[in-house]
Prior knowledge:
The complex is a heterodimer.
Chain A lengths: L1 H16 L3 H27 L5 H21 L5 H18 L3 H12 L5 H9 L9 H13 L4 H13 L8 H5 L1 H6 L7 H11 L7 H14 L3 H13 L24 H12 L4 H8 L3 H6 L12 H10 L2 H6 L12 H7 L16 H9 L3 H18 L11 H18 L4 H10 L9 H9 L6 H18 L2 H29 L10 H25 L4 H14 L2 H4 L10 H8 L4 H27 L10 H18 L13 H6 L18 H11 L14 H12 L3 H10 L7
Helix pairs in contact in A: 2-4, 2-14, 2-15, 3-4, 5-6, 5-7, 6-8, 8-11, 11-13, 12-13, 21-23, 22-24, 24-26, 25-27, 26-27, 26-28, 27-28, 27-30, 28-31, 31-32, 31-36
Chain B lengths: L14 H10 L3 H14 L6 E3 L22 E7 L2 E2 L6 H16 L13 E8 L11 E8 L11 E9 L4 H4 L6 E2 L3 E6 L1 H15 L3 E3 L4 H13 L9 E7 L6 E7 L1 H11 L5 E3 H19 L7 E6 L3 E4 L3 E4 L5 H16 L1
Helix pairs in contact in B: 3-5, 6-8
Subcellular location (chain B): Chromosome, Centromere; Nucleus
Keywords (chain B): Centromere, Chromosome, Nucleus
Family (chain B): Belongs to the CENP-L/IML3 family.
Amino acid sequence: MSSQKKVNSWARRRTSQGSSSYQTRLSAWRVKEDLSDSKSISKRGQNNTVEDYEGADDQAEDALQIALRYFEKGPIKTSQSKEKHLKTVENVAWKNGLAPEGIDILLSVALSGKFGSAVNTRIFKCIIPVTLISEDSVVKAVSWLCAGKCSGSTKVLFYRWLVAMFDFIDHKEQINLLYGFFFASLQDDALCPYVCHLLYLLTKKENVKPFRVRKLLDLQAKMGMQPHLQALLSLYKFFVPTLISVSLPMRKKIYFKNSENLWKTALLALRSRNQGFPSEPLKLMLANVHPIKRNWNSHSIIPVLNSCNYSKESRKKRMNLSDYFSSNGSFPLEQLKSFPQLLQNIHCLELPSQMGAVLNSSLLLHYINCVRDESVLLRLYHWLSQTLQEECIWYKVNNYDHGKEFANFLDTILRAECFLQEGFYSCEAFLYKSLPLWDGLCCRSQFLQLVSWIPFSSFSEVKPLLFDHLSRLFFTSSIFFKCSVLQCLKELLQNWLLWLSMDIHVKSVRNSPLETTLGGSMNSVSELIHYVGWLSTTAVRLESNHTFLLHFILDFYEKVCDIYINYNLPLVVVFPPGVFYPALLSLDSSILNQLCYIMDRYHKNLTAAKKNEFVHKTKSEFSFSSKTYQEFNQYLTAMVGCLWTSKPFQKGLSIDPEILGNASVAEYKKSLNLVHHPAFLSYTVSFLLQECPEERKVNMSSIRGKKWNWYLDYLFSEGLHGLKHFIRSSIHRSSVP
Amino acid sequence: MDSYDTPELTPRQDASSRLKDFFIGATPLQKRLESVRKQTSFIATPPRRKIPQGSQLQEDVDPQKFAFLLHKQWTLYSLTPLYKFSYTNFKEYSKLLNAFIAAEKQKGLAVEVGDDFNIKVIFSTLMGLKGTQRDPEAFLVQILSKSQLPSEHKEEKVLWTGWFCCVFGDSLLETVSEDFTCLPLFLANGAETNTAIIGTWFQKTFDCYFRPLAVNAFNLSWMAAMWTACKMDHYMATTELLWSVPCSPHSLDISYAIHPEDAKALWDSVHKTPGEVTQEEVDLFMDCLYSHFHRHFKIHLSATRLVRVSTSVASAHTDGKIKILCPKYLIGVLAYLTELAVFQIE
């Protein structure tokens, strides 16, 4: 009974305030907005000084305590300080709300008649809790009413306040014991409507007594058909239909006077504070723009978590008592609060009536992750793909007002995907449909992240649907867009690799048909890598070797070069010349350093692969073609030739010496070694200056022999670790020039 | 939103099985994705369709039974499969929906006590309104207002009607499991607020999703061609096409009315394959209309937007409104609408 009662009163509350929720929500949002930095601002307004935030906070707290003590003591003749203290209390109350003790004090002050009614009104307006009001304060306040020290208008205000704050009172048992007292107050014509409303919220079945019914009917006879009396009567009739024989007009709209106008914005701020929903008011502000759409999916895009209400109803009916005992009953979602609970009840969990709600609950995402029931996934699939299309702001014309909302929605999805470490199929389907229409700007970061969570699949199949559109955007957009695309493709590669590597470990245990298709999946991955290689080669050319871009490209290859060792997958793909040479000739030392690191990793991966092949001679399926080794060796030769032996490009480079002479680089051979390479020039110079700081001319060719080694150590100490690894693994130091 | 700070807690134990499923394409989800891929990669609509035939309803079904569905304007929605929907629970559904509507209507008021809300909800099947045996039965939801005074003759006024159907929805049926009922096409007549309330109830109860089904100009021209191609004993209305020119301050509408027999004659002249309509024929048909119009008015209709098609068979508006006129082709019209709805939910 009691739980039912709770629901009842909640519903009643909701209905009595539903009328103008949109406006109030909006203002609540504003209030929230300045909640964040309000204190400093208000402080500044008062003192005209900018103070340390912390200090301001403490001071406000102190000022509040002083003010409260002042009010407790009663009026002192200097009105100036009264005004000041009132202001203090108001400021704090409206911004953050008051603690239960503060509320206790202020209630007593307002009802004890120490101050005039103007002050009492102001006090009442600012009795706003931080979160909750203690029941004792209310009981104490009611006792003050009996003392008869306050005016009628203050009493009215008190009842209005009580109705408005009803939901925030921590307990109501003792207040309910005062039912008789409140009921007696119905006599007062001015109080009657508000007391009715309070009783309406407070009434339990056991409060409905014949004498009370008689009294209400008397009042009705005296005052006529008053809506508030009728509301109370009909509630009585609902609880005890036998007591009331009068017919109440069924279809009359029963209104209470809106008691909470005074605290409307504060209440909303309070509610959102209690629920911790910062973004909701914003959504509702937008709601007015598309009323029809909002009618359908009332508050937010993602449905609220409700356990299956229909099945519950029907089960209740069909189950007789024995059924009830035999089945251990299902576990309602609303009670699911912790992971251990989930584990204990996972077999009898009642699923949400709308599967989309799982996006907002990490516990249920755990459940989704291990559930075998295909229908659960299908429900989520349908809901998600339809919602994405419906909410997508560029998918339909004139939908751009919802940009923020859509971005938030995508963020939620992405959090879920990241949590599950797995992409949703519906998101992939959505990408197919929406990517061709995308302008590359709207929700860019979210949209690209969706791309990076595309579940592993055959690349050649997905390419015409996704990646061809993506490359079109890639080539025509700014360098920053190019970088973010490369970043997202790197993440995509990583996700695919993780997935496949997990699978390989499981494979040996289970006898899945995958063995035959592992080559297929490796193919798909290598196609992805080649695709990115193609994008990168063209982009480097388009952006004329931009350092920033090269960074992102090399980041991608940092993943690629380590596939064999890091993910234990039989795949090594070397980068294309269009990436290697621009990086080698880059003017930026960090690029060159990164390149060295990647070359070193390639070296290690290929060596490991070779070794492995040597050991298991039988497993020839995934042996790498000699072409891979050749490519790599070619790069390695070029690199060592440039940086170390000063014999760059001995094969394949045939430029007429005359041309080189004309360009005054006849002596080009040394110009790309560690000393002369443009990327290292600044290091060389500072190395030499370190030696003799006074020198105006430095002799770069002096770095050789022992000094070369010192120079190397200097470079390593400057953080060029990639270079260090590269030189250690690929160069035998005996060959110092 | 809960915080997701511990992704390590959920290792994907069954990656292998999912991957396996992927390669075999076994799970319903995978099938769905496959069909989406196919749809996206090729031209959205098949290049040929059947011309609606006369009597596709099963023999034991009286076409007059569905007369009340005709001559009414319906707003179209697509609907994802209904989860755990059962044709045997109609009584219970009507009770629950009734309560839900009452609760929704009373929002903003103090609770009205008693269950005397003056409406009645009726669920009923539309037996036989389907294309193949595999299609699930269509069903109807009606909201009636109860007469105020019991003494008066009991006349119940229909406030709102909506029906759910699936006609030749094979492609969708293949991709869902048995817990679901596929009725991808939903048609509503009545106040939008009611549609919203009832739709919300369905969404909450059967975890489905309604989306308004707009008909784009491309599909409208298909309708124009297919419906012109239908054999009619007598024509009830002229064939009329409406184009809209977006210009400020008011958009300009161009109405193009043709005598239905002339339209049919034009169609017959471009039509080659018996019983079928092809994309080329549709294009040709529309081009003929365009060039005729251009000859007289020097306006290129192809540069404007087709927004409405009315024929003796049915009329459709681009914002997703349809009126079916000819009982003979009811199924044919619904088949095409089902196809559009299925396309939208894929």
